[in-house]
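re the bet — no i am not wrong, look at it urself. input seq straight from the record:
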Amino acid sequence: MIDQTADALDWVKERGLGALADKMGIEFIEFSVERSVATMPVEGNTQPAMLMHGGAYVVLGESLGSMAANLYAGAGKLAVGIEINATHTRSATSGQVTAVCTPIHLGRTLTTHEIAVSDDSGRRCSTIRITNLIKDVSGYSA
């Protein structure tokens, strides 16, 4: 496990977030086992009514939660999502949203994270919870 916040942020930037997260404009701002923060623009991630798409919130949450679980899991392990849910309470319409990910449970084989997504005014728009399974992966380096 990488335990220095600056090293962890460098690790995630070097590793990359994947093609979908890149297309959606997700950017990690802070990254550690205890707390991770990312932003995503509303523009380009809306549904036809010009509101932030609920699926976009979920992609943001899964990107944060899965990366945090993999950081926690460490070398030779792979964290894979096994359950995710979201409650959308407000719709962002402009600017960007900010997601804050914190662990609820960090175990030997399972992690659960909560991701709170807020708009530019600090109003919560969505709450996502993701559970990841930590697997041994021969030859895998986190």
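see?? The chain has a mean pLDDT of 91. told u. also The two ends are 8 Å apart (CA to CA). so pay up
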